[in-house]
Amino acid sequence: MGRGKLRIYLGAAPGVGKTYAMLSEAHRRVERGTDCVVAFVEHHNRARTEVMLHGLEQVPRKELEYRGSVFTEMDVDAVLERAPAVALVDELAHTNVPGSRNDKRWQDVEELLSAGIDVVSTVNIQHLESLGDVVESITGVRQRETVPDEVVRRADQIELVDMSPQALRRRMAHGNIYKSDKVDAALSNYFRPGNLTALRELALLWVADRVDEYLTEYRNEHRVSKIWGSRERIVVGLTGGPEGRTLIRRAARLAEKGAGGEVMAVYIARSDGLTSASPKELAVQRTLAEDLGGTFHHVVGDDIPASLLDFARGVNATQIVLGSSRRKAWQYVFGPGVGATVARDSGPDLDVHIVTHDEVAKGRGLPVARGARLGRSRSIWGWLVGVGGPVILALLLNTVDLGLANDMLLFLTVTVAAALLGGLYPALASAAFGSLLLNYYYTPPLHRLTIADPRNIVAIAIFVGVAVSVASVVDLAARRTHQAAHLRAESEILSFLAGSVLRGETSLEALLERVRETFGMESVALLERTSDVDPWTCAGSVGPGPSKRPEDADVDMPVGDHMALALSGRVLPASDRRVLAAFAAQAAVVLDRQRLQHEADQAKELAEGNRIRTALLAAVSHDLRTPLAGIKASVSSLRSDDVAWSEEDQAELLEGIENGADRLDHLVGNLLDMSRLQTGTVTPLIREIDLDEVVPMALGGVPEDSVELEIPESLPMVAVDAGLLERAVANLVENAVKYSPVDELVLVSASAIADRVEVRVVDRGPGVPDEAKDRIFAPFQRYGDAPRGAGVGLGLAVARGFAESMGGTLNAEDTPGGGLTMVLTVRAVERRPDLATATATAERQVS
């Protein structure tokens, strides 16, 4: 059985009519005789949607109990057993109730599709996983229920259910979406016109991109090379010259005239890398293209016109924008130029615009790289061998006669050596000088620059040709070796940058120091400003005397419009600026990350402070006032002359006063301890003690018959602060007694494990789920339905804070059979033997 097909109704917001459209499609299919069932549809008490369910077969839902409530979910097994042709499954991004077959509803849908059942579903654009941050920035609401984009993209059919914001708000106001008591809040918050317009744009653009993908797949499958003008795409051919900015702006104006126009700026570089444009100018043009809503592409190709046309046809472009040639008139003898060639070969479906600019006919003016330099010392040695080598060889050969053939081979050897050391030009000089010496000394007539035998002319010509060819090959190989080493260094640097991006480890100062070391600079500074007219400010720098402005630096690399990396020390070659551009981009990312982290830390501190202040006010307003009110009432009763209290009544009132005072003392103590922990003023006095000296003292605040104590005498001593450990254990025991059943004892036991000692406080209470085990240690937290009078929720937070201040840990574990176990771990100290034991041991060793 084949896989089922998935059809999705996509909407921009709740209430646009996705479920209604899905049910309408179901009715149409049932009328055509298709076996269609409702697997799960939520009508949200909307009358018109609920009516559409009539006449459709509904698979009974599965009931699940969770935290005392009963929920209904889609019964996947029942749908699979029913095996319809089509199943309707609403709300694809829904999260299932714990205990369901799958965590997400889209996973349930995947099972139905795998079973060969076609599925019709619905989803809102804000539930797509990749758009979560964008939707939160628009609406201020973080979507908890999401579906992976790939699940929706794999759908066989996606239909957009669209509605204007005004119409959707009218539907909301008429009560067709939410109940009347929620309408005003919805209209003033999530359903604001701006929010709905932005969400609608997201939905339209997402569907448009998906349609574009369908079109690209179809063209590739059917090998359609002809351009289809379904959408205006304008390709801008850049040379790296200053006219590129004019071309990009002209293309942007052309794109604005058509609906959905798209600009793609492309620079084509030769594969050998021997010619390149100005990296700084290309960076500016990249930024300009992106600011105007376009994209920038870097393509490698030796045949520039063919590569440009291939790129344009590959992206289904409709227009190409090129600048008028900068070549002078005499340069056209070498060919018609890129513009004329592209216009000639573009065909009838691709329009070519030739735009004039200020650089027309002024010459190319682009920097041409001459390959990697071999170094000053190698060049000097190359010239010495190329010029001095033939002279020395001639002097040596004058003393011995080896024959013309051998003489030529020796001179050729000197030429090859000059090429290996100094490159092409010393080798050419060696070949020219060697041929003159061969002619003068070894070719008849001797000591004259003439040749009598024509065969010797051929030999000299072959010698010069071989010498030049060998020198060219050796020079090219030497330069390619140098280039390979340079590129390897570049790749290592880029690999380092990529790793630092993934790890997020590099600080701005460390990155700038790496730039300074890599390029051998004196100082490096990252400069920024808020606008084009504001002064530059230094965001970070290393080295002495960093530049205050980009124009004052020896090298400046722009990063966007208002940021630049300024280097002082020397001028960099163009080949090194590519790596510098990567460093500059990474520096901007690191700076943004540091600032965002700082803002996040500040926001976290403010939020934590606000939360603690709010909880503290709540504690003071209720938990502290309650015992105060009880004490005041008891004291007022005792002082009253209107009632004659018996001794039993007076004792009961005095006991109430004492209990209230103890409770106040406990609450105020926890509040003070928490404030000390929050401000970092807890300084433990660590000393070596036995646990059986401290733990029993911590049980004074609970009834005597509520705790079972198991502290072995063989335990090693522990390095703790006795007071802090007593308070921590007391809080743990009081918490355990509070939640334990009346007939169950709390067990406090201790054991040694390696170099640690564990104190376990075990209760048989209701326990805590795994996801809440860390949360119960947060300040002002009460788990479950604990009453307000049960405390302010600081006991466990204080206990963990004291444990960590002593170098220990405090964690929560499940008690086998039910309940919660608090595990307090502290550092053990090796027990020192007393004097008598040490003496006895020594005597045994001597005997």
Automatic annotation (TrEMBL):
Protein name (Swiss-Prot/TrEMBL): histidine kinase
The keyword Transcription regulation belongs to this UniProt entry's keyword annotation: no
Enzyme Commission no: 2.7.13.3
One Gene Ontology MF term: ATP binding
Subcellular location: Cell membrane; Membrane
Domain of life where this protein originates: Bacteria
Keyword tags: ATP-binding, Kinase, Membrane, Nucleotide-binding, Phosphoprotein, Transferase, Transmembrane, Transmembrane helix, Two-component regulatory system
Cited Gene3D superfamilies: 1.10.287.130, Backbone structure of the membrane domain of e. Coli histidine kinase receptor kdpd (1.20.120.620), Histidine kinase-like ATPase, C-terminal domain (3.30.565.10), HUPs (3.40.50.620), P-loop containing nucleotide triphosphate hydrolases (3.40.50.300)
InterPro entries, A to Z: HATPase_C_sf, HATPase_dom, His_kinase_dom, HisK_dim/P_dom, HisK_dim/P_sf, Histidine_kinase_KdpD, KdpD_sf, KdpD_TM
Top EC category: transferase
Membrane topology listed for this record: Multi-pass membrane protein
Parts of the chain that traverse the membrane: 380-397, 409-437, 457-478
Presence of keyword Nucleotide-binding: yes
Reactions listed under catalytic activity: ATP + protein L-histidine = ADP + protein N-phospho-L-histidine
Residue span, Histidine kinase domain: 619-830
SUPFAM superfamilies in the record: Adenine nucleotide alpha hydrolases-like, ATPase domain of HSP90 chaperone/DNA topoisomerase II/histidine kinase, Homodimeric domain of signal transducing histidine kinase
Location, primary (coarse class): membrane
